[in-house]
Amino acid sequence: MVKQFAIFCPRAEDGSGRANNSVFAGAACEGGDWKKRDDGRRPGGYNLTELEVFGETSGKNTSGIDFDSYDNIPVQITGNDVQDIKPINRFSEAKLTDSLADNLRRCGYERPTPVQKNSIPIVISGRDLMACAQTGSGKTCAFMVPCLESLLRSGPPANPGSRSRPKPMPCGLVLAPTRELAAQIHVESTKFSFDTGIRACIIYGGADMREQRSELEKGCDILIATPGLSRSPAAAAPSDAARVAAMQQEALSAEAQI
Fold first, then answer.
1. Motif Q motif: which residue numbers (predicted)?
2. What strands lie across the sheet with 222-225, from one edge to the other?
3. Kind plus residue range of the DSSP H or E element containing 156
């Protein structure tokens, strides 16, 4: 069992190590309607119900985490100006957009785990992050919640050109080493993104590529994939494959440098 959480915060893009002019810097407000993104999606044609996504809610966190024991585990934060970073003790302190905050309440999330209470404010402040924590510590929430918050605040990007048939163009990329982990991340991402207009799609080996491509063509804002499949024809149209490949290369390069 890991006895310590390690979090690394490299410098911001301006080189100062402090928050840059990120969309996170202001108050939480949505920057546009993702349900109307021009990428071929069909409004209302594929939405799951709240019961289908969340199941029977109990009104409390059912993850089985002993928060008192977790809080006794030391958290090591390294990087530039980390003394300015203040962890959150409740998700409400993160001042997330209403739609995302509502989904956390639907999940029964009120009190964050150590990796969540430290990672979320770091990313919300516009910083890059690499975190290491034990299995079952809530890492998916720790990176997916600020990812969704970024997209909600910035709004959907404009269609880059005139096309007779818009193509899916993911704005976020999540790489998982196995299809089982990718599937788990996708399930949680579907909960966090419920009714926000943001679509999380998944591709992995051992499944029908035509079915997965069909899902992508309905619109894809966050792509969850195993590394090999993120470069496959199912991941993007030929003209958009470079975008996905560049996102993957950037993520892998950053990991290697750290």
1. 89-117
2. 172-175, 222-225, 200-203
3. none
In angstroms, the Cα distances linking 59 to 4, 107, 145, 197, 200 are: 30, 8, 19, 24, 25
Beta-strand runs (E) in the chain: 5-9, 75-79, 130-132, 172-175, 200-203, 222-225
Residue 230 sits at the vertex; the CA angle it makes with 228 and 236, to the nearest 5 degrees, is 140
Mean pLDDT by 10 residues, the chain (258 residues): 56 46 49 82 71 74 60 81 86 93 93 90 86 86 93 85 72 92 95 94 87 86 82 49 51 38
Per the structure block, which two tokens stand in for 23?
A: 């969309």
CB 174 within 8 A of CB 225: yes
Nearest to 142 by CA among 151, 132, 152: 132
Q: Half-sphere exposure of residue 246, counting CA atoms within 13 Å on the CB side?
A: 8
Strand partners, 201: 223
Q: Measuring CA to CA, which residue among 187, 165, 161, 215 is closest to residue 54?
A: 187
CA-CA distance, 215 to 243, in Å (whole number)?
Answer: 18
211 Cβ neighbours under 8 A, 6+ residues apart: none
Strands 222-225 vs 200-203: parallel, antiparallel or unpaired: parallel
| DSSP summary character for residue 159 | P
Closest Cα to residue 194, out of 55, 49, 92?
A: 49
Q: Enter the pTM of the model.
A: 0.77
Q: 252: number of CA atoms within 13 Å, CB side?
A: 13
Query: What's the CA gap between 196 and 103, in Å, rounded?
Result: 9
Q: What is the pLDDT of residue 229?
A: 57
Query: What does the pLDDT read at residue 251?
Result: 46
